[in-house]
Write a structure and sequence with these properties.
Elements lengths: L1 H27 E3 L5 E3 L16 E11 L3 H10 L9 H4 L3 H6 L2 E6 L20 H10 L3 E3 L9 H13 L4 E3 L2 E2 L7 E5 L2 E9 L16 E2 L5 H14 L2 E7 L10 H12 L4 E5 L7 E5 L5 E5 L4 E3 L5 H4 E11 L5 E22 L5 E10 L5 H4 L12 H9 L9
Parallel strand pairs: 3-4, 3-15, 4-5, 5-6, 9-11, 11-12, 12-14
Antiparallel strand pairs: 1-2, 3-16, 7-10, 8-9, 13-14, 16-17, 17-18
Amino acid sequence: MKNKLFALIICICVLFTCCSCQNVEVTTAERTTNGADLPIEPITAPETYVEEPSEVRISFLAVGDNIPHDSVINTAKNDATGNEKYNFSEIYKGIASDVNAADIAFVNQESPVGGEALGISGYPNFNAPHEMIDELISVGFDVFNIANNHMLDKGEKGYRNTVDYFNSLPITMIGGYTKSDYNNVRIVESKGVKIAFLSYTTLVNSGHANDISSGSEYIIPYANTADITRQVGIAKEQADVVIVSMHWGNENKFTIASEQTKYAKLCADLGVDAVIGHHSHVPGKVEWVSGESGNKTLVAYSLGNFCSSQLYAKNMIGEMLKFDIVKDVDGTISIENAYVDPVVCHYKTDTSRKDNQDLHVRYEVRMYMLKDYTEEMSNSHGSQNWGRFSFANLKAYITDVVSSEFLK
């Protein structure tokens, strides 16, 4: 009996041992389809992905003088529907896609935007409606310059209202400052790159030159060597790129004035990356100016008019300056792919009516890229009432002034 009991105990132990071995095999090996055992691959920690530094490229665009002539304002009135007072969307529709495609877009607003209480008005004392700026923002402009010869057209109050208005908007305004705020550099950050904007004018209209008293809290950013040198130094400490807006030169002149040469060289010597010029109302030269450290500064002496209803063909074509701000993998900043993409301002003329300047009424103002403009359209331009206007002549104002290096 003991022998049988002992034999039974042995069998149970053997069976338990076999089952235990089988469990170990299942947890330490895989089975193939034919039943053979394969070793399990050891578990390893996943590799850590390290992102390599890459080039950063920011597209920049700048246009010249946006001027609210009476005919521009009246066009917006006529385009308005419903409860609208003004609608500027049709005026800027033809250039909207180019502006919207840029990471940063600059425009010179050649007027106060001082509010309706001061009277919306065109030449000679401008005051643009808020709706004009609203549309420019909608189109894609995000840097507005207000330092120009018309900035005091509505006196100190108009200037103050304009500064307050722009500072309430989700954009960057340059050229309008209080004394306490003058050295606070305006910086736009895009894709991790900081771009500083400075602004100066060489003049305000003579009739308004004394509108700002010495005791005023507001200041006009007149171009001078001391301020430019100091503020460029501050900007270079705070930003990766420095762009300077300059309202300078002589109206309706294609040649470069001595003051432009002086300040362009100063900016280059100080290491400014680009200078955006405006005021002459005609297209101007674009070039690289060498600085004393061997650097190159891109200088556009005059972008000409953007939107206006001036009388002559040379005033109806302007420069849309485009370039890339590039930050290399080692942190080096450069300006690349600079070129001019011209814009045309088109309007019609009614020779049966006169305006408050005793000129034929201009109406239906529209903006176009030159690449979208046609000879047929140029044949109907209202500017022909004041002189020769042809498609070839229009293009020549660009090609005769801008080097082929900056044309596509």
